[in-house]
Amino acid sequence: MRARSKNSQRESQQGTQDVATREQLLIAAGELMAERGVSDVSLSDIAIKSGLNSALVKYYFGNKAGLMIALLRKVLGPAMLQLHHLSGMKLPPEEKLRIHISGMVMIYFQYPYINRLMHQLLSDEPDTFGSLIAQEFSAPVAAVQKHILDEGFAAGTFRKIDPLLFYFHIVGACDQLFFGRYQLEHVFGIKAINNQLKSQFIDHLYSVVLDGISATSKEP
Amino acid sequence: MRARSKNSQRESQQGTQDVATREQLLIAAGELMAERGVSDVSLSDIAIKSGLNSALVKYYFGNKAGLMIALLRKVLGPAMLQLHHLSGMKLPPEEKLRIHISGMVMIYFQYPYINRLMHQLLSDEPDTFGSLIAQEFSAPVAAVQKHILDEGFAAGTFRKIDPLLFYFHIVGACDQLFFGRYQLEHVFGIKAINNQLKSQFIDHLYSVVLDGISATSKEP
After folding, report:
1. Domain residues of chain B, as ranges?
2. How many CB atoms lie within 10 A of CB B179?
3. pLDDT tens readout for residues B201-220
4. Minimal Cα–Cα distance from B141 to chain A, Å?
């Protein structure tokens, strides 16, 4: 590192500083969205929460939509990587299905604002974000599911299942416990989703779906 | 009717006129929401579309939220009544399950804006609408599902299933094909949901869920 010029040292320090500032803004945005919902968070709220100037949000992300996309990438990035690895793992297809369903529910549990964030972006600017979100986040999920279904069918474990119908079934089901939190409170009297409920939901979805697509189940 | 006073005749005519005007406004609101999404529809849009004065929206519904609740009641009313009858019908539990899943998907197919409408209301005024929507629309669904699950368990057809987990599984799955229409377009290249896709989705959900909760399926 001693061979580095002072300029490149300064650039590198600046780069590290940039990453830290971006991170600080994203953490503040995520915390605010978890507290009060996606649509109630303004750029100046994020500035106040992070202790940084709101001009920095514009400098690093352009606008609120830019920050929201960066937040999605930050929180979903590790899960997308795990999902990518899941396809190639040497595991029986039913075990991959369990890991997949469990991973989806865990992400919604950890970041309950994700779905609202996506739908806010899609509703604000469908032309810009529709294809971006689908390609970056939805298409990889659909591809891995299709891979698992194909493997299960080839192994004689699963019956033939349409990947499109399966995709909407699984994504909708995994998400609804978190998205429909008003129903949870007002129909079932449960204010917050704890670890036990989350685990029960994973077990329920996995067992119903696995038995439902099993090759030994009755054909429709 | 001849015995009626002129006053009560006038009141009755006024009542009929009120119903017709309300209906005209609700139809215009529903058509606009189906065309361009819930959040992009203003009171003056509704006035223009219906050919009526926007002051009438305020007169009949108070505000946009009032009109949205009235629209929900109008489009979901008949389905809630059918759902209520379903519990008491002399049919095997698996047939009731098929009618229920099919009915839910048909409603989302016919009124794809319903879910966004509910979530807009919940997000705008959670304290006012959270309990109203849950009690009027979600609780009856949960109650009928519990009834069907209980009947199926008593008959030895279904295994023991937690009604709360089942509720979120079914509602989320039925809704996602319609709510996630950007994924449908950008991941699967399908611009609109036709009758065939709707029927395939119903068949898929019903067969997977029925086999998944069947008493003969493997326990988790």
Report:
1. 1-62, 71-213
2. 25
3. 999 999 999 999 999 855 44
4. 10
Which residues have C-beta within 8 Å of that of residue B82, sequence separation ≥ 6?
Answer: B103
C-alpha distances (whole Å) from A133 to each of A105, A117, A179, B120, B180 are 19, 11, 18, 21, 11
pLDDT digits (tens, 9 = 90+) for A21-45: 999 999 999 999 888 877 778 888 9
User: Measured between alpha carbons, how far is B171 from B103 in angstroms, rounded to an integer?
Assistant: 11
The verdict on B191 touching A (C-beta cutoff 8 Å) is no
Task: Write down the ipTM of this complex.
Answer: 0.87
Q: Which fold has domain B71-213?
A: Tetracycline Repressor; domain 2 (1.10.357)
Option in B123, B183, B208 nearest A138 (CB)? B183
Each residue of B133-186: pLDDT tens digit? 989 999 999 999 999 999 999 999 999 999 999 999 999 999 888 887 788 998
* pLDDT bracket for residue A8 (50, 70, 90): low
Q: Rounded CA gap, B53 and B57, in Å?
A: 8
Say how many residues make up chain B. Answer: 220
CATH number of A72-213: 1.10.357.10
- From chain B, the residues in CB contact with A94 under 8 A are none
List all residues of chain B from 139 to 158 with a beta carbon under 8 Å from chain A.
139, 142
Domain B1-62: CATH superfamily, name plus number = Homeodomain-like (1.10.10.60)
B194 part of contact set with chain A, CB < 8 Å: no
